Amino acid sequence: MHAVTTSDELIDRSGRLRTPWVPVMEAFRAIGQEEMSRRAAALNRQVRLAAPFGAVTSHHYDPLPAPLTASEFAVLEAGVRQRAHLLNVLLEDLYGPQTILHENLLPPALVLGKPHFIRAMRTRRPLLGPRLALYAADLIRGPDGKFLVLQDYTGIIPGLGHALTLRRLAATTIPELFRAGGLRSLRPAREMLVDHLQRGAENGLIAVLSAGASSLAYAPDMMDDALLARALGALLIEPGDVAARNGALHIKTLSGLLHIATMIRGLSGIELDPLEQGGRPGAGIAGAFGAIRAGVLTMLNTPGSALIEDPDFAPLLEPVFQRLVGEAPLLAPAFGDPLLLASKAPFVNGAGLSSIPLSFRLYAWHDGAGWQVLPGGLAFALDAKSGPAAMKDIWVLDADEPQFYAGAAAVEPPERLPFLPAAHLPSRVADNLFWLGRSAERLEAAARLLMLALPRLESGTSLPRDVAERALIARCLAQARLIPAELASGAMSGKFLRQTLARRKPFAGLVKEVARLLNAASERLSPSMLATVQLALDQVEDALVPNEETALPAILGFAATFAGIAAENMSRDGGWLFLEMGRRLERGEILAETLAILLDAAPDRLEPGLALGIELADSVLSYDLRHAGILAPAPVLAMILADTGNPRSLNFQCTALRWSLERLGADDDAESARLLQTEAVSLAGRVTELATPLATIAARLRMLSDRVQRRFFTLLPEAHQLEDEEIISPP
Amino acid sequence: MIYRLHHATSYDYAEPVVLGTHFMHLMPRERPGQFIRESQLAITPAPELRRDETDHFGNVTTTVSLTLPHRQFVVALSATVDVAQPAPPRADFSPCWEEISNAALRRAEIAEFALPSPLATPTAEILALATEFFPSGEPIIAGLIALNRKIFQLMTYRGGVTNTATTAAQVVKGRVGVCQDYAHLMIAVLRAIGLPARYVSGYLRTLPIEGVEKRRGADQSHAWCSAWAGDAIGWVDFDPTNNLLVHDEHVTLAWGRDFQDVSPLRGIILGGGRHTLRVNVDLDPVLT
């Protein structure tokens, strides 16, 4: 036996650089070692930002691609296409007539003993679509240069989201790499996939089913799910978003239940349907199996399709393929240690390049007529012992003129997927955005109050005006839950406030809540918005560590950043409306509650409260400009209660609420907001007995908030399992 | 023997159920020795959607969806069934058990019943029982009859001790339970030596004969074990709860690897609060 020598992607046997690598290595040399490491880090930062930041990926991107020539890809394409076809025929047989088992071409006990053989998916007639509609394979280039199959993916298709995203990010981070021509674009392929999905879905929705941030279910890569949903313009959903009605699946959205026609599955098929398989209702989708069998739901891939990706089958498939389609497989399975077989390619590391064995993952989908193979994919370093596996973009380089991509003929000009309007917003997302608006506003209001309180509490004079002012501030601090209510008095000192803050750390709690909701709502924020907001929030978290007091400027900085992003970077769609309503309800409620305290005095004692009120409403400057600094009740109240041009007035909050509610078609709630507007304006005209009506306004805002929640977030009771536990019993 | 079968299950909810989806194995299937003359499954309130399908095992399943608020849910089966299981051959003429277990794994429609399933997986203790009743060369029917008797003797029949998730491994330790536990234990014993066995859910006729002990499980849903005895003999049913060979007093509803495959009635409901369950079964011979 000869010692096996692996081949090298970069250099051929005569020691020359292979053609497709020439422009890549030229660019690498031009960029330089150190700069390349920096770019690699930047690329990976971009990826993290491109996904919800709760999602942790188990991979990291290598900036150098894995280039293939057009003829190499043609070989792979033919092999993958054939294999996908064969595997689908096999699945259709195993979940149908089981000829292969009756003829003992596969051992029946092997197939039927696998947990991924999901009996509920066995049907007499074929399903609406092929059981295998998305496919991926890991291949290696063996010592003789032939490609071998390392692993099939027929259930969950890992990495497709990354594969459709990586190049777009790399092109902006390392543009030098992309100067050489001939790189085959992924875009036509992706658009054809989207068109195919949309044709299949007709008027229903297309969704990517992910485990969800709070789930304990097995979910290989939630970031991948999120990237895939974005790349395909599909909804990203969790089992909890889905409800079965009349045998079909629907997503709970703001405008009620909308039919889901196609679901790309990021969850295991085992325990997917608690109705038929048992298990906790919340973890799966009750009725999913029945919907698939009845042809009212297409799932990519059908539950149970992961059966044949089991490595036990790979060595047994050749005679099966011969029997089912009369063809010998073009791609042979890899036997032996892939590390010793696979070709090597350079990966960027801190010190330069290292040559590591790699696998190529190619993706294919069934477009209704036949199998299409993505002219790209992901290449993985095979030596990853621990930590994230390095992943490369696969390039297909055309030598000459651009190639035309052949596929199913478009039946009609593909309709562009409209930007999902408010109606399609999942209730869960709206709920999170609403509370994000509230909690961000609560954080800001608490910081403003503290900024105002600290210097005033420091001046320890016993003048009656100062004592009165301190008492008012203390009541406001207690109202905001920054100090315990029993300690709110004119005897409150700055030192005591500092000690309380140090002990209770109220801001750490508020910031944590903002971070949690930001994470939960991150799928509705763009990568750049997330990056900016996250940076500001990181600064707050860092600043909070030594001392909550010194973090106040950072908190106000975050609040300004967040408000600016919401105002300037978000389109006024459903998601923004909920963020806006949350913010306006919280600001209005806090303002009304605070003013109820500050203005709880006889007309001749109103001055300290008016001064604090106008300062809390951040309106000192405008007031001074308009009224030359002379504090009088009527103009102050007009400015903080009635002024429609002051974004911190009570009327402004109510007006904004009314507008949002009208846009969402909640006419009765909009009417409530209109009445609150009128009330705020009329209150500005009185000088006495303001406390009670202001407290009433705060209470009515709370009621409006409850109604918004009930109306839009449809808090259905949690589903539970009804099992016939007593049916079999002794007489 | 011809039977008229009525089986009504009703759930009464303390609070209205706003949405109910139910998946049932409640329509009797046909099999060699069982002919369904007529059968109907009535659902109250009338469901907005109903699907009757045949599952992987050939059982009839019914899925219903109720989308209007309701406080009661009733499933009523009425059927006329003709039953005559052929008597198995004399024990000493049946093939030896090794022949059966060797053939089983190569047969597509048999193999899965020889493999472990969630509720009927062999353990060392269960294997010990198997080797006791199936010494080398033992004719399959002789071993099955002896094992059926052994489980009947070994176990104490008592309700409320076990539940629908109790495994054969737990049963062999506790040695107490109801018919489904008897069946799971017998199935697991057979699987321990590669013999195919399946779980059968159905009904058992009551014999109101003076002075004869009333059979347990009578006029109730019942469950027993079916064992494969090779191509020539086929499947033979044993009722270890009553130490009976199934002949013409058992009506088969459905079968699977264990209870989980044929759970008579599963549901996911929204609302409902606490519920009370009532079950009525009548199995009466039709005089011809």
Walk me through the structure.
The complex is a heterodimer of chains A (731) and B (288). Chain A has 731 residues and is α/β, with parallel strands linked by helices. Chain A contains 25 helices and 17 strands. In chain A, the strands form two sheets. In chain A, strands 1, 2, 3, 4, 11, 12, 13, 14, 15 and 16 form a ten-stranded mixed beta sheet that branches. In chain A, strands 5, 6, 7, 8, 9 and 10 form a six-stranded mixed beta sheet that branches. The longest helix of chain A is centred in the middle third of the chain and has 32 residues. Chain A has two domains: 398 residues, no CATH class; 291 residues. Chain B is 20% helix and 40% strand. Chain B contains six helices and 14 strands. In chain B, strands 1, 2, 3, 4, 5, 13 and 14 form a seven-stranded antiparallel beta sheet that branches. In chain B, strands 11-10-9-8-12 form a five-stranded antiparallel beta sheet. A two-stranded parallel sheet of chain B has the order 6-7. In chain B, helix 2 packs across helix 5 and helix 4 packs across helix 5. The chains are: A alpha/beta (731), B alpha+beta (288). Chains A and B meet through helix 5, strand 7, helix 9 and strand 17 of A and strand 1, strand 3, strand 9, strand 13 and strand 14 of B.
